[in-house]
Design goal:
The protein has 88 residues and is an all-alpha fold. The protein has helices spanning 2-21, 23-38, 42-45, 48-87. It has one domain (2-87). It contains four helices and no strands.
Length: 88
């Protein structure tokens, strides 16, 4: 039970961080949509699906790194506080 809550919290935190780091992904998707509407030659020249997938996974990686670092810092501060509380 605890680990499922921990994993769901990790995913929620990553999704919230993705809102911050997903700017490039949203730009790629908007460019792709604009290219389709305009009907230009960019459709053949640019690998839109590869570019979108690459920027999506880059945003997810950044969000997960931020969440993991924040959790590690929280754990260190929590352990430091516990040690201070026990020995004071």
């Amino acid at each position: 039970m605890f680990f499922s809550l921990l994993n769901s919290h990790l995913y929620l935190s990553a999704l919230l961080s993705f809102r911050v780091f997903g700017k490039r992904y949203r730009q790629v998707i908007r460019g792709w949509e604009a290219s389709i509407r305009a009907g230009g030659t960019n459709d053949r020249r640019i690998n839109w699906s590869g570019s979108a997938l690459s920027s999506f996974y880059a945003a997810i990686r950044k969000a997960l790194v931020v969440v993991i670092v924040a959790r590690a810092l929280g754990l260190l501060f929590g352990l430091g506080f516990a040690v201070w509380w026990v020995f004071s």
